[in-house]
Fold this protein.
Amino acid sequence: KNEVEQSPQNLTAQEGEFITINCSYSVGISALHWLQQHPGGGIVSLFMLSSGKKKHGRLIATINIQEKHSSLHITASHPRDSAVYICAVRLGTSGSRLTFGEGTQLTVNP
Amino acid sequence: DAGITQSPRHKVTETGTPVTLRCHQTENHRYMYWYRQDPGHGLRLIHYSYGVKDTDKGEVSDGYSVSRSKTEDFLLTLESATSSQTSVYFCAISSPQGAHETQYFGPGTRLLVL
């Protein structure tokens, strides 16, 4: 079993829809990251969370440490949001190393 | 964007040949990482470095070696390439910042081993 599980694996939405991507992890962590990978491959960091909620534009990330769960929400989705969204955790004992989920492929249709 | 480049960006090679991938950074970050990305798997750590001449194995290190003789360069060598090493390879960098540490990724190298 992966230490980091994402759901769904694939998600197709219509432009304007509210989107939620989930990430669950099984061990203690010191931080959780959400990353975005566009077609063409570049990976960028969206959020880093250790508690609570963060918002950047139409993106909102939340984390519940007790339930070992995080969600990434996209409001008013747009075709340019189409990408792979990756959850990664820094385990409590791994120093700077990250453990990654398999990613969620999001496609937003016009 | 963090100043990270990878070379080559694409490579086709034959089984049994050695291959070296280069990661170069201009950010003076202390930590550097090599990952591979394959369908059905998340990014998996091959090797990492916490400083010059200070490297360690990740979860999928068999068949790979690394060297870091300068802060800015981290080399990944496939000693004798196999078809199972066909993948996309990403370099990443970070600096120790405790809970605020973020990794920055290079553009990736697509490697095809025939």
